[in-house]
């Protein structure tokens, strides 16, 4: 089993976590850590782990942009 972890920090981190939670596979676990969110990934193979992290980060970026739009912060 291969594992990886990312930490998202920012004013929208918790909102992004909530938005992405319904799509989390059983191999993805996220929880609040201080002023951020920790996301733990597990996979049997490195390419699978990398794809899971890539998909999560892509969706997190989109969710963060939606948050910024909602509060009028898009540059």
Short précis:
By secondary structure, this protein is an alpha+beta fold.
Notes on the protein architecture:
The chain is an alpha+beta fold and 75 residues long. The chain has a single domain, classed as Alpha-D-phosphohexomutase, C-terminal domain (TATA-Binding Protein, 2-Layer Sandwich). It is 44% helix and 29% strand. The chain has two helices and three strands; from the N terminus they run E-H-E-E-H. Strands 1-3-2 form a three-stranded antiparallel β-sheet. A hairpin with a 2-residue loop joins strand 2 and strand 3. Helix 1 packs across helix 2. The longest helix has 25 residues. It is elongated. The mean pLDDT is 92.
Give descriptors for this structure.
3-stranded antiparallel sheet, single chain, 44% helix, 2 helices, alpha+beta, 75 residues, TATA-Binding Protein
Cross-sheet strand order for the largest sheet: 1-3-2
N-to-C span: 41 Å
The ordered H/E elements are: EHEEH
Beta-strand proportion = 25-35%
Low-confidence stretches: none
Which architecture per CATH? Answer: 2-Layer Sandwich
Report the total helices.
2
- Helical residue percent band: 40-55%
Structure classification: alpha+beta
How many domains is the backbone divided into? 1
Sketch the major β-sheet. Answer: 3 strands, antiparallel
User: What does the overall shape look like?
Assistant: elongated
Describe the secondary structure blueprint for this structure.
Layout: E1 2-9, H1 13-20, E2 28-33, E3 36-43, H2 46-70
Antiparallel strand pairs: 1-3, 2-3
Helix pairs in contact: 1-2
């Amino acid at each position: 089993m291969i594992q990886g972890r990312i930490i998202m920090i920012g004013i929208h981190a918790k909102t992004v976590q909530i938005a992405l939670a319904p799509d989390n596979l059983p191999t993805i676990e996220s929880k609040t850590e201080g002023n951020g969110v920790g996301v733990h990934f597990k996979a049997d193979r490195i390419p699978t782990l990398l794809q899971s992290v890539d998909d999560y980060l892509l969706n997190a970026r989109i969710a963060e942009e939606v948050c910024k739009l909602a509060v009028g912060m898009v540059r």
